[in-house]
Amino acid sequence: MGRIVSQEELIALLSRANRGSRRVVFTNGCFDLLHPGHVRTLEEARTLGDVLVVGLNDDAGVRKAKGDLRPVIAEDERAEILAALEAVDFVVLFGEPTPRELIARLLPDVLVKGSDWGATEIVGRDEVEGVGGRVVSIPLEPGYSTTSILKKIRKLPQNLSHPAIC
Fold first, then answer.
1. Does any domain span residue 94?
2. Is 66 considered catalytic here?
3. Active site includes 155?
4. Helix locations, 5-58, DSSP H
5. Domain residue limits at 102
């Protein structure tokens, strides 16, 4: 089970000076409604190194990126869920529009994003590759997206309040 840490604690634990021979993998996202696509991507990311760090957009960042109706799940709860996954070693919140500053401080050995991000769109690429790290694009699992799950939920009849319906 992973740990939720502050940015300062993360850097103290895993900066290039402190990580030893451990290969640090970093990925980031909103992870609003965790689904199998997220889990599989995180599991694959974990195979690329010894330690997987997940940068998690804070609530304000999710609202800015996804709209006023998001996030559905608050940042502390999203962090707790992610930290409970076997593949995840550390979860760290960030409030900046992108994780560039965090990536520049951590300088992971591997930066991972889903294949929905173009090569030139991956924030932190220059910083990671500039110190000899690599950027890996992981194919998305077809059929999974938080947006599509929310669309299905919104189509449900509003009178589904019977306790047996779950």
1. yes
2. yes
3. no
4. 7-14, 36-46
5. 3-155
